[in-house]
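Q: Hi! Curious about what NAD-dependent dehydratase looks like structurally. Here's the sequence.
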Amino acid sequence: MKRLLITGAAGNLGKICREGLKGYADVIRLSDLAPMDPAGPNEEVVQCDLADRAAVHELTKDVDGIVHLGGISIEAAFDDLLQANLLGTYNLYEGARKNGKPRILFASSNHAIGFHKRTTKLDDASEQRPDSLYGVTKCYGEALASYYNDKFDVETVSLRIGSCFDKPRNRRMLSTWMSPRDFMSLIKAVFDAPMTGHLVMYGVSNNASKWWSNDHAAFLGWNPQDSSEQFRAEIEAASEAEDRHDPAVIYQGGPFASAGHFED
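A: Let's find out. The predicted structure is below.
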């Protein structure tokens, strides 16, 4: 790969990708609306507002792949999500369509399916059940990716990311955690594959407690190496037992599912 674009490069996942994907492409183009560290060797830094269609068109020129992490990654007011997550994602896909149709890894979210119960194991055929306005924007992104693949042959892996940190931070993350190492190997598997079409996957490590299945994506050859189980005793000792009547425990989206409407 000659040039890989990473949007949302100033955020937590963007920083993980910036470090973890060094050397994977000849040049890594890093973009965000927020300030970023200066470009290092084999890097390009481009400050860009995803809501600016002309700027995004320029941003997506001459790239062979896109890791789209940009946008708002928490619950927020609809008008803010509209600009960053809806319009911004549309602009990115239009830029990709008009600039050689590079493959895209779209950072979807477990909050696109957060109103499924924890007792239900999900796969790519499971229905969207967003737990928040933020989750709704990720459902939109997945639908947009499907449309652009069917109509224009722009390939996307819509990755429903769980919780990507150095280690899980609470009981829920024992099921949703994806290690940075597994995330990096997944990204490489996505872009190394001969084809993907539009593929919905779950961004999760090989945890003992599993809510999601990636069996349908076995053709990628991705096998996560890490597990949250090594952290279980530490986390359980540091936290109270979960209340099985709490909606945050019943539903996979956790506190996103139990919270009220953001704009109330």
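A: A fun detail: The CA atoms of residues 14 and 222 lie 21 Å apart.
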